[in-house]
Amino acid sequence: MEFGLTSDQKMMQDSINRTLERVCPLERVRKAAGHEPYASDVLKALVELGVPGIVTPEEFGGLGLSLLDAALAAEALGRHVAPVPFVASSVLAPLALIGVGSDAQKKMYLPKLASGELIAGVAISEQAAGAREKAGITAKGGKLSGKAMFVLEFGGANIFIVADKFAGLHIVDAKAKGLEKISLSTIDATRAIGELNFDNVEAELLSSGNPAATLERMIDAGRIMLAADTLGAGGRMIEKAVAYAKERKQFGRVIGSFQAVKHLCAEMIAELEPCRSLIWYAAYAFDEFPGQSRRMAAHAKAHTSEVGTFVARTATEVHGGMGFTDLLGLHYWFKRIGFDRQALGGPEKVRHDAAVAQGWIGN
Amino acid sequence: MEFGLTSDQKMMQDSINRTLERVCPLERVRKAAGHEPYASDVLKALVELGVPGIVTPEEFGGLGLSLLDAALAAEALGRHVAPVPFVASSVLAPLALIGVGSDAQKKMYLPKLASGELIAGVAISEQAAGAREKAGITAKGGKLSGKAMFVLEFGGANIFIVADKFAGLHIVDAKAKGLEKISLSTIDATRAIGELNFDNVEAELLSSGNPAATLERMIDAGRIMLAADTLGAGGRMIEKAVAYAKERKQFGRVIGSFQAVKHLCAEMIAELEPCRSLIWYAAYAFDEFPGQSRRMAAHAKAHTSEVGTFVARTATEVHGGMGFTDLLGLHYWFKRIGFDRQALGGPEKVRHDAAVAQGWIGN
Amino acid sequence: MDLSYSPEYEAFRTEVRAFAKQHGASAPRGAMGDMRAWQKLLISNGYAARTIPKEYGGFGAEPDVLKSRIIAEEFIAAGLPMGMAGQGISMLVPTLLELGSEEQKKKFIGPTLRGEIIWCQGYSEPGAGSDLASLTTRAVEDGDDFVINGQKIWTSTAAQADMIFCLVRTEADKPKHEGISYLLFSMKMPGIEVRPLVTMTGRAEFNEVFFTDVRVPKKDIVGERGQGWFVANATLKHERGMLGDPNQAGTRLKALIDLMQNEEIDGRRLMDNPVFRDRLLKLQARVHAMEFHGLRLLTAGLRGEDPGVARLIVKLMGCELNHQLAAFAIDALGELGILYSGSPHLRASGTWQTSYMFDLGLIIGGGTAQIQKNIISERGLGMPREPKAAKA
Amino acid sequence: MDLSYSPEYEAFRTEVRAFAKQHGASAPRGAMGDMRAWQKLLISNGYAARTIPKEYGGFGAEPDVLKSRIIAEEFIAAGLPMGMAGQGISMLVPTLLELGSEEQKKKFIGPTLRGEIIWCQGYSEPGAGSDLASLTTRAVEDGDDFVINGQKIWTSTAAQADMIFCLVRTEADKPKHEGISYLLFSMKMPGIEVRPLVTMTGRAEFNEVFFTDVRVPKKDIVGERGQGWFVANATLKHERGMLGDPNQAGTRLKALIDLMQNEEIDGRRLMDNPVFRDRLLKLQARVHAMEFHGLRLLTAGLRGEDPGVARLIVKLMGCELNHQLAAFAIDALGELGILYSGSPHLRASGTWQTSYMFDLGLIIGGGTAQIQKNIISERGLGMPREPKAAKA
Asked: Would residue C335 show up in a list of annotated catalytic residues for this protein?
């Protein structure tokens, strides 16, 4: 019985954090945000650590680690609001290929995804969060038509993994004929999402297993990754708030000596730390107790998002006016948490899925 | 344009408060709570002020005042956790008679209710809050059968106003044959509710107007009264908490000088004061803009209950261990607020009614 | 309690409505149209600068909050711009009326009212936010001038402003509340640098202003030298008097209800989602409560009654409510709710997100929620101030 | 991360299960049965007093939190009572082991473990709650005795107790933390009066204890004279170690889910009400989070790692969660939820209401939520203490 990280896991997360501290300071984030599809130099540094191949089996050039390891990486990326692909390209796309790719497809794509040569956007928003504006993809004779919104890691993607209305999964080349790509700008400029319009676009079907089950697992994994991202971003915001409160003086005292400020900080950490345990469990359950995966992923996402919203707001408040300005860049973390909350289903939707998963209600 | 109390209204509320301070101190509440159906001496003092006839027309021996006046009385009663009938016997029962009583019925009952000679329990829980345990009354040939739960002001009632499943309203004598009366004890020992079991019980139909509309107005009025009761109880709890915090010392300071305690008190009053305005408006709308009555009564009840729960808990916390003991009797207010919250529909149910009332959804 | 208006006020409303109908088409909209001409028209009709004496360029009416409210209601209903509402008009003018010299009143009030002088406010500093009295911008005497050095922040219209009303420390040796003076000077003086201050919304709603050896005549002081703290507090009192939408939250709620009735997810109206609907209802109750609370304060004002703690809670509760309304809109919109600044599919031009962030700024600014709670507990509930810290 | 148990622990679990099966029928239930005999049986099998040395009447095993947890899990699963868990066993015994004299250990630990001496704790006073060090119960030297006068409160088992471990002020002239001593004495002494303290639940879960000229031999002190504050803090440390249901919230959640699936309103299951269901789901997430958080702390303990702030938050979050679970049950039950104490139709014997109130007491007691937040921010986040107040 061991509910904690191994020393390997701690070392891995440490090394990602140290690397990001070096290659991805706030100035680098500012430079990329809204301007570059992603920070390719930061990605390169992560490739050296094997991060893009973290869940990909070793035979395909990956590290072959668990989803918990991926969650630790996601936490580090959230901590540094790193403007690089990860959730879609390094976790969900590989899971799709591992789940329902043919051997040829695995050999073709997995190593390139693991090496960062290929970036994969993932279009599963309609299945995870519900369809807006009548979006949805139909597949007919190997060709896709329709619209997919809120495609993750859209910016700079070479291929897309696309779910159709009947939970079929497809690979589409980013340069395919009939594919229209529209960037969507969000509050979170560190992540480039977009919309895909398909007009009879050639696609490669991923069909060697159970695509519906794979899609469900992709959604679960994605939710856990977003929760871990919020955990990292929120944890960093608390650290920043505490550090600021220890330094900033008003009324002749550091503001961190005022009980009101201390209690805000105490409430933040008291809310966030149990999220860490919940995310660890959800990630572990994803691999070890798949029957609990849907429910635990949903809880990890919904609960961490609720706490994240509270932390983002409160840490900003503790910073006073400085938190509201662009000067300290605190808003990058604030907005990242805001993005994580809505992507792949907001808290209400995700909790609904948890109710269905445990048979409390029908679908 | 005048959104405030008249000097008459202020005087009336003052005089009720002063009377209750005199005749209904905590020791009197303790003595009655759970032991007497109601405190008849306290009621007697209120009769002298005309309180039981507050909404009854002057021609029937009442004061003929507005529902806002009744709300001010309810606030005063909540403020003193007064163990006397009021909501059912002095507001809802008269409204039933005024709404759908024949002239003979009005003449027969209203003056006696106004003088406190007669106490009326009101059985409308199934219509207001939903039916539990398959409760519900059917009327057939002037006789009632079935079960009514959570009958308000059941203790010591001489008559009951009973709603049947089809919104018919009836008067039943408390001594009628076939009527079984079962006391229910709740956390709030200042109000005696109960259950009525009808086995072909003789009843007098109230049938001279629109009973369904009258029942709806009774529910609205009851919700406003319960909200006002919580306003009074909550306001008093805040006063007590502030006074205690100014007096109690720990760590060499009065605890009211600690920012954490001050902020709790500030949050309580900031939440409660707008409830006062909302209740005033709902009560005013009940008489002046009946089209808004259902929605505003629901909002007044639901919102004040949510705030009341927060105030009850927080004021207790400010009192520390003393708040948890019986010594200061603070729990009488705490429990009164707890009762008000659930009676005639909890917040979720009541908000649902507000959605229906404004046509957002079907019934 | 009587929510109807007396005939006098109904007549006034009719008059305002007629004005709105007559002039609505020619009113400036957004950046379009001549705002100064509009302002002059409003003043001459008593719909702006209503209670400012005629001799200083106002309309010269008696104060009447009900009429002010009617003007605001009708202008908002007709979608007309209110009169100019910069910090010069809302804060400096009342201060000059109360504490300015006759010369200052004559010189500044009229042009300010007519939009001929745009002002900015120089109060906050990087080291003096909640604790404003600890400001350090220094004004040193040199002949007939003060020479000013230092920095201000949160100066909202600094880039457009002609003039600034500014707090500076003239008496370095006095206790912190007593060494401050309130100066008026031109923003075109040499030595003034304005730098836009970008916020989390991505825009520069504010500025930083730097003073390097700025020379200001000593006579351009309002009130006595060293009394600037008390002059400024008179001004701060007026900040709360700024007239905007008397029910901004109500306007937002309406938009939220529309959103819930019109947006769909998986082909189902958001309004048919009971969880979102319940949250909307909770917010509706709060919006109504604050709306009626506003009427209650208005009535107290009309009656000359002191509403006590009921007034002190408005900023805390109002800002929080607006923030929560925006938060709800974002959640209800889901992924659509995180779109921003010119994106396709953007709803309400992204204003829900802007509000969500800007309202958080308002919760923080002008006295954080923490300071508000101190004020409510001390002034409203009579609780003791925190004891002064012992010297370490 | 590995949530399976190693063969050693699986074997241990099997052993505990076998014990539970064999002795389950004869275990005392509620007020029925011989608790002392049961306790002896548990000690002899190592299921109570597990790590107390044999020489003092315990089982003498090495500490192993995992085994302790397995015992708790299996006893709860089988519905068996755990070993006795009064304040004598959970607080005094560890303190004596750490700081008691050999004579005290020999004399008190064995009988305490076997339930032959029931203890109560004399710490809190009406004027010394959160600020325990300001206690004023005085012990004045008189020959070989102390003579004790004063009052204690929140003394939970005072009416049943044979003995008390009690903090008294022996040095009136010393600074407040340094004049306190930790005494052991009989509750049967003349001059001790116990008055039940009724709480908001309507029951007397606590007592007040009054001392009038109570004579206690000076030798019955634990640790040094004047060191009682530090001895007590060693004891307080153990308070958190009290073993109850390791997942009380989980047990309550299960009951809540049952309630939602079985209760109906207007013939419709509560579970089919989306608003209540959403709230249940929010609570479920919190219960899981705290459950896994407990596992994380357990593992940190096994590894000898310091979990830091993660440990400090447990009381604050755990008590609040239990309170919220009860609040939800009451709301879901509606009018049924306010029924109490023996009423017809009462659900779960009224325990939801009892919990709702008692958990609020726990939030307040043993360090209010405010004190907990001070501790978290100071010890957990390294934020500064509030400055001492200057003398007025």
From this structure: no
